[in-house]
Amino acid sequence: MIPIDQPKPRKHRAPSRQVAAGVFGGAGAGTLAVWIFSLFGIEVPAHVAAVLGPFVGGLLQYYMKGGRQS
User: Fold this and answer.
1) CA geometry: angle at 50 spanning 48 and 32, to 5°?
2) Contacts of 59 (CB under 8 A, 6+ apart)
3) pTM for the whole structure
4) So what's the pLDDT on residue 37?
5) What does the alpha-carbon distance between residue 63 and residue 59 come to, in Å, rounded to a whole number?
6) Is residue 44 within 8 Å of residue 37, measured between CB atoms?
7) How far is residue 27's CA from residue 62's CA, in Å, rounded to a whole number?
């Protein structure tokens, strides 16, 4: 039993659509972009390839409709 003076623990909620799209879309799109560049003979340095995933994920999160309202 939880004592009265302590707040109840918050329920864990699933991530919003924005977060899911940013995480999964960013990782996939960043990897896909590096692969497409390699098909055209463009060498992508490792540090640039590492930044592509989070950058694309952030763009997807920004433009994705939805998100938490609270």
Assistant:
1) 90
2) none
3) 0.60
4) 93
5) 6
6) yes
7) 15
> Which tokens in the block code for residue 52?
């592509």
CB atoms within 10 A of CB 16: 15
pLDDT band at 2 (very low <50, low <70, confident <90, very high): low
Q: What residue ranges do the domains of the chain occupy?
A: 17-63
Question: Number of helices (H) and strands (E), helices first, in the chain?
Answer: 3, 0
For residue 28, the Cα-to-chain-centroid distance in whole angstroms is: 10
**pLDDT tens-digit series, residues 6-64:** 777 777 777 777 887 788 888 888 888 899 999 999 999 999 988 988 888 888 888 87
> Is residue 56 a contact partner of residue 29, using CB atoms and an 8 Å limit?
yes
Place of tokens 């899911």: 20
